[in-house]
Design goal:
The chain has 7 helices and 15 strands. The protein is of the alpha/beta class and about 290 residues long. The chain has a domain of about 180 residues: 4-Layer Sandwich (Metallo-beta-lactamase, Chain A). A hairpin with a 2-residue loop joins strand 12 and strand 13. The longest helix has 12 residues. The termini are far apart.
């Protein structure tokens, strides 16, 4: 697809997890793809609900769209993914980065899941760096951008790039790197790769937290990130970034939904199989 093509991007913000889900399509086309859908989870009651998925499906139905692909940028640690639920509703295929198998191995060990298949088979397609998904005039190119996790991917569609948690809005900086397999130096190199995209590339982030009370936002640009990102703007060296990132990570608490989310997200959004009483259970490792 020509870089001049500008896809239509519709964002859905989940205020509970500060997550942004995107529906992406080419003007005039009925096919679309969805990036980073959310499955709602109430940690107090253990209830799983589909309010966020309902909103995406209502938009798709109201606009006569067909969801062809659903993609996660990485195995999220701060919300459950709606990948499986949205696929069941729409018949779409699912995809994530190929390195998800390594993340699965890590967390299958943490959750003591000896029979869990750590091969990415829960997803319809595993994407490698440079792989493409083609839907008529819409062409998505996958970029491997590790650092936050080993399996993080960014997705380029025309003049837009969807960066997941790798970069946030310029006034919030970059992703943490203290999860298993994370690495600040690796993240710096991934970020620089994204900032080598054309300056006018529209950049869509995976979360926003409204620092300082500003309005929630999710679209910026490569140029704005180069000029103003508080962690990696032009002129900040890798060594400076690593020192800054490691110092900040040392002050951060564990994400509130990390323990329930990861054991669902390595399953592509499917809950653990029901036990003999018909109920699914989540596991919480103690003293880890």
């Amino acid at each position: 697809m020509s870089p001049a093509i500008t896809p239509l991007v519709t964002a859905f913000f989940d205020p509970v997890t500060w997550t942004v889900t995107y529906v992406v399509r080419v003007p005039g086309a009925s096919s679309c793809l969805v990036i980073d859908p959310v499955l709602d989870y109430d940690r107090r009651s253990g209830q799983v609900s589909v309010t966020s998925i309902d909103a995406v499906c209502a938009f798709v139905d109201d606009n006569g769209l067909t969801v062809e692909w659903i993609l996660d940028t990485h195995v999220h640690a701060d919300h459950m993914t709606g990948l499986a639920e949205l696929a069941r509703r729409t018949g779409a295929k699912t995809a994530i980065g190929k390195q998800v198998s390594g993340v699965q191995k890590t967390f299958a060990g943490i959750y003591n899941l000896p029979d869990f298949p750590c091969d990415g088979s829960q997803f319809d397609r595993l994407l490698e760096d440079g792989d493409r998904i083609v839907m008529g005039d819409l062409v998505l190119t996958a970029l491997h951008v590790p650092g936050h996790t080993p399996a993080c991917m960014a997705y380029v569609v025309g003049d837009a790039v969807f960066v997941g948690d790798t970069l946030f809005m310029p006034d919030f900086g970059t992703a943490r790197c203290d999860f298993p397999g994370g690495d600040a130096a690796t993240l710096y190199r991934s970020v620089r790769r994204l900032l080598d995209l054309p300056a006018d590339t529209r950049m869509f982030v995976g979360h926003d937290y409204g620092p300082g009370g500003r309005l929630i936002a999710w679209e910026t640009s490569v140029a704005a990130q180069r000029q103003g990102n508080i962690h990696v703007r032009d002129g900040i060296s890798e060594a400076e970034f690593v020192a800054l990132r490691q110092a900040r990570d040392a002050t951060l608490e564990m994400p509130e939904l990390l323990l329930p989310s990861l054991q669902v997200n390595i399953r592509a959004g499917n809950l653990p199989d029901p036990e003999s009483n018909g109920t699914s259970y989540l596991k919480f490792p103690l003293r880890r």
